[in-house]
Fold this sequence. Notes:
Layout: H1 2-10, H2 14-41, H3 51-61, H4 71-75, H5 79-90, H6 101-107, H7 111-117, H8 127-130, E1 134-140, H9 144-154, E2 160-165, H10 171-182, E3 187-189, H11 202-216, E4 223-228, E5 231-233, H12 237-247, H13 264-267, E6 268-273, E7 276-283, E8 301-303, H14 304-312, H15 314-323, H16 333-337, E9 363-365, E10 386-388, E11 391-393, H17 399-402, E12 409-411, H18 415-435
Parallel strand pairs: 1-2, 1-4, 2-3, 9-12
Antiparallel strand pairs: 4-8, 5-12, 6-7, 10-11
Amino acid sequence: MANYFNIxxxxxxxxxxxxxxxxxxxxxxxxxxxxxxxxxxxxxxxxLWSEYCRNLYYQDLKLxxxxxxxxxxxxSGDLDEVKKTQIDNLIVTxxxxxATDKDYxxxxxxxxxxxxxxxxxxxxxxxxxRNYPIAYSMVIHxxxxxxxxxxRSIYMPQNVYCIHVDMKSSETFFEAVKAISSCLPNVFVxxxxxxxxxxxxxxxxxxxNCMEDLLKSSVAWKYVINTCGTDFPLKTNAExxxxxxxxxxxxxxxSERPPSYKKRRWEYEFTIVDSIVKQTKIKKKPxxxxxxxxxxxxxxxxxxxxxxxxxxxxxxxxxxxxxxxTFSPDEYIWATLHRLPEMPGSVPSHIKYDxxxxxxxxxxxxxxxxxxxxxxxxxxxxxxxxxxxxxCVYGTxxxxxxxxxxxxxxxxxxxRVDDHAIQCLEEYLRHKMFYGNIV
Length: 439
Ligand SMILES: *[C@@H]1O[C@H](CO)[C@@H](O)[C@H](O)[C@H]1NC(C)=O
Ligand SMILES: *[C@@H]1O[C@H](CO)[C@@H](O)[C@H](O)[C@H]1NC(C)=O
């Protein structure tokens, strides 16, 4: 072997050989310098398919969970490791103080430093992702740290993010959100703000405000995904892009025949009394559509054409207007419009197209009544965190199950209930972003 190289490279004179060697050395230095330069100062996509380059990026951008917990063990279902974090959560003095609005106002004074410190990924990870931008409509009202961690976990420079901040949020919260978005060119706050009253039309209006703004953005996004402040992703941007392409122009969401107890929600007019939605005795006219009402939830995956139709198609507009004095319209308007033949990306109203939340992609939720022993027929294990408003706020013990599901996002997470769970997801997603399947 040594001989072969000698013959190949060094049959010329020793001098030529030395020159060749020096040139090679010089080129290596230049290449290495360029890579490092790219890493720290520019958004250029370094050759991510090269192992060397990917490792460099990951060293710079990994999000490691704090303390001694081993997140790989937690996610692969190691109960002892889960127990350690649960015990830690019981010790009040161990509670981390969450970052405040003021902290973010301070941090974002220097945007470059903010993005570096918080490890934002400011370059696209592949051409396929770069060429497939996604829009996000994020409706939030409190907990700036949770919002910022959610934003960071879904942030990609080719995407576009509209943030709707509730009118009842504090002024400093709104200022902090504005400060964060001013550091990221493709993140903006909604041009119109609503005072969101639980179960009222205002929740839908907040998303509509963002969707209208997103349509005006110069980003040629293909799908919009909406989130609230307690969501966290289970999938990387690359995985979401891959799944959206497979949808082949269809929307995706929960959409089923409604249980009979929900029907009063749109059969009667509702009105807001002291910030609470109350039923009146006035019966509503039937909805101005030729299909029945379908039941779903507020979190959906919609094509750009569908969103455009919300503002253009008279059937959609009339239906939305008709729905504006009903109870929790967010939980049925998307599910119903998705079954209307006139709407782009819709599917037929036939029962064969019904889809439950567990079969849809948008959102994974554990409801209090359904969590239990799967061997006894429960659809999922009980909540390992805490139930709030009948919905599980996930703990580390839920991560093993969550990581095996197909959903883009899960709800709810709260660092005040289990910060370890969020930290482990952050670590897991960042690793998957660099070492999972790159599309
Ligand atoms: C976590 O546990 C895995 C084995 O499950 C091990 O391979 C890995 O090195 C551990 N990581 C740390 C940081 O200790
Ligand atoms: C609902 O639509 C009606 C008719 O256009 C309008 O007068 C009313 O202001 C709307 N209500 C809300 C809450 O948007």
